[in-house]
């Protein structure tokens, strides 16, 4: 009888510690004390500044488009290339020295500049060296998508989203979401800076995550989702799964005890 009670106590302990609560699985949880949550978001609206490895899309337009064609990519990088592949060949990559090479204009330093500052820089150079104001030069400069990588308890791989700004929730959803055994309370972001790399943390189960300066991802971010302890235990993510697993273990233990007591 004592052995049975001991086994039941062990089973209840394992069951309570092994299954994953909905609190750990739910995103952006609000305060239950209020009916609706009004989130005052104080984001750092600092524009992104270019780094080594970034890819830019640059186009020059004018009233007479023929006179500016020499400044635009030819689109002959590879036959039948589309989307990201085409951008790889037609885009302007920032090299190790922080420069891009633009047709006719040559090398232009863009390291640490915003896309708006680069647009003004190219426009000023075109007007001072090649055209007059009457040509109505129109330059567009954009990041060729926001590229990021995900590893861990999330759809692993490299991803590109063609938007001006991307939240970490959009990035995770695009990667396939976090698994049931992924730690949503401590999602890590490895981010590149001119001085090196830094790791930042964000709790995606808390509604206050939208106030974080890391809620919006940046190009070349690495999003890391570590597993919860329940994964190493292998006891299941729900109560039923855990109960079945623990029941099997207890059954084996009970059988072993009975066999040994008979001898």
UniProtKB/TrEMBL annotation:
Keyword terms: Signal
Domain Soluble ligand binding: 158-198
Gene3D superfamilies: Outer membrane lipoprotein wza domain like (3.10.560.10), wza like domain (3.30.1950.10)
Classification via Pfam families: Poly_export (PF02563), SLBB (PF10531)
Keyword Glycoprotein: no
Alphabetized InterPro entries for the sequence: Poly_export (IPR049712), Poly_export_N (IPR003715), Soluble_ligand-bd (IPR019554)
Domain Polysaccharide export protein N-terminal, chain residue ranges per copy: 45-141
GO MF annotations in UniProt: polysaccharide transmembrane transporter activity
Protein name per its UniProtKB record: Protein involved in gliding motility EpsA
